[in-house]
Amino acid sequence: MLTPKSSRPLHLEQQFPNLNWRDRFEDLLALESGKKMISAVSRQKEAVTASRLRNESVHDAISHVNQELQRNQDFNVLLQELREISIHRKDTAIVSMIDNQALPYQKRSSELAIADGKTLIGSLKELQNKPASSYKRRVPWITSLISSGAMLEWESIVYDSADGLLADVYKADGSGDGQMFSELDLSTIFKGGYRLDFRSPTWSTYEGSYNTYYPQIEQFCPEGDADPDAEHTYNTIDNLRPSILSQLTTTQRRTSWNGSIETRVVLKNRFTDGQEEEKTIVNDASKVLEEVEKAHASVKERHNAIGLALWQLSYRKQKEALSAAKEMEDESVE
């Protein structure tokens, strides 16, 4: 699939970012595979679903931005209190660390959050009345070529990883023909204007997003398991609601009783607790899109929950440092 020849459509996005070529490319692949072009009715139905999902996703993301800004403000209050006490105690090292590292970091974090919020709001206007394919990020769009039936005899598995969504797109005949790429790969290629020379990410990235929080907990809790805050944070993350870890997409074309050709899409979700669920959707791209976006939302929900648990840990540690500083201040006054 992603050979130099077949990757030309992705070059189009580099050269003509405002050109709506995705739908045309899907129709081309469908015709080459012996299928009719995707109907206008199907595209319109999928576009309505995509618009609704996009609005829901953006409003949810903006809500998280507001929560992040509030947490940054709460943390700033603690830092300012600690700074005042450190000034009284003439602890120049702590004052310097707060002024040169902690407060600038919080300011930068808030600036990035505000910028993200503005980008999200702008995307609602930018994508208004656009086809469903315009709403899809690059990895979901490439895998949707399989679920649409445009790429027969191909399958895909999309994983959560430390590099964002990680797709394994391969021939279903077991020949080994295929390619792996992540959302980060594609983003780096397009932002840098590089050639589409896809690499195969090593399996160390697989499930990586569920391990990246370990070093952060160890940084806040150098005593390890002896620190009750560390145990509490590990337990909080371990007991999060199971989320989707990977989604397998397979497609079959069958002749129905009335002679029409139907596209049957099977989606198999694997969860972080090992459970699996399977859903079959027939001739309905809008429902496929909804199930794919549910998987992405499940991943984002877990990432946000892990981020909140880590923030709560850092906030508790900062409060402990503030309490210790206050005690030392009181003792010096006495």
Task: Explain what you see.
With 334 residues, the protein is of the alpha+beta class. 58% of the residues lie in helices and 14% in strands. It has 10 helices and 6 strands. It has helices at residues 8-15, 22-32, 40-88, 92-126, 132-135, 138-147, 183-192, 213-220, 228-238, 285-333; strands at residues 154-159, 166-171, 178-182, 244-255, 261-271, 276-282. Strands 3-2-1-4-5-6 form a 6-stranded antiparallel sheet. Strand 1 (154-159) and strand 2 form a beta hairpin. The chain is elongated, with a radius of gyration of 25 Å. The termini are far apart. Residues 1-7 and 196-208 have low confidence and may be disordered.
Rough shape? elongated
Class inferred from helices and paired strands? alpha+beta
- Our estimate of the beta-strand percent is 5-15%
Q: If strands are numbered along the chain, what order do they take across the biggest sheet?
A: 3-2-1-4-5-6
Radius of gyration: 25 Å
Indicate the low-confidence ranges by residue numbers. 1-7, 196-208
SSE string, helix = H, strand = E? HHHHHHEEEHHHEEEH
Tell me how many strands there are. 6
End-to-end Cα distance, whole Å, is 76 Å
What percent of residues adopt helix (DSSP H or I)?
55-70%
Sheet of most strands:
6 strands, antiparallel
